[in-house]
């Protein structure tokens, strides 16, 4: 069982694959650093913000609540979103959880507190500023952090019982590559939960909103895209909850994954 943040960090390091990558990782910052001396890319204004220390500092209390209110997730607080993630991921035991694009760990720590025994929640992000904040604010006996690129998750297939990715796919240049990675590292029978953007209807409104958010580097996804991709990937129990400009999609990975 993880007894301290240091034990959780050691376990997070042990889970990195392949072994050669583990050997190159640094842990002196209190997290597993897989990209030493490699700054996070800044392809858009939104990404620049995610790599900024001031934004990382105010992210949990100010930046995210404001952003979420702009998305019109009517009446849903961050605690309600966290509770939804726990329910959708079915967390209640010694599970291994991966929180991809975890930001300052504002979900990771909460998810880790639902685990028991050998359970561990690993927050994974590419931003040094966000990971540093996560280590400062949201470490725990079952919560540890890894800095790397979600397009190349450093884990063997089927490593995790649950995989979460909230408020991030719309910022990532290759979201479908990341989605494939999330599904790859999930074990058969495991649960995935994402929260991302949802294009408003009718189409002219969608184009208008898409143009505005596109300038900031935030992509709007069609309503059916993730449901279709999950189903085409052989996932079952696919559920979607659309709220304003956001969508929550969760599913179970079955034993056989179909190739797309
Ligand atoms: C808006 S924050 C989301 C934080 C948290 N999941 C939440 O729901 O509040 C988006 C995060 O995605 C991260 N991110 C963007 N591209 C990434 C990539 N290729 N790999 C890992 N993380 C990435 C950013 O650094 C940022 O911390």
Automatic annotation (TrEMBL):
One GO term (biological process): methylation
All residue ranges annotated as the Methyltransferase domain in the record: 97-190
InterPro entries, sorted: Methyltransf_25, SAM-dependent_MTases_sf
Enzyme Commission designation: 2.1.-.-
ATP-binding found in the keyword field: no
Keyword Methyltransferase attached: yes
CDD domains: AdoMet_MTases
Transmembrane parts of this sequence: none
Keyword list, A-Z: Methyltransferase, Transferase
Alphabetized Pfam families for the sequence: Methyltransf_25
Organism domain of life: Bacteria
Identification of the protein by name: Class I SAM-dependent methyltransferase
